[in-house]
Amino acid sequence: MEKHLSVTQGEWPIMELLWEGPKTLMELVSILSEQVGWSKSTITTMVRRMDDKGLITFHTEGRTKVFCAVASREEVAKHADEIKDRLQFSQVSNSGT
To answer: Cα–Cα distances in Å, from 97 out to 41, 49, 76?
Structure first.
């Protein structure tokens, strides 16, 4: 699966935690409900979408899903810089018309 390296503002807290190391869904819920006030269903939806995008993945240990980052912090930062550069180029190109 191709990775979509665009990380939304809402996805950053999950990525930050997973860059520290693998986490179960309940570990993410425990931390994120305290840090940002998200419910279990919100976090479940977020990790499912992030898995679909190829940003994270999971493996199963018994009945527990353990999530980890697929996209590195460096890959995501490089992608963000490339988008920023394209936007700046576009603005410069459009300002000359």
So the answer is: 48, 39, 33
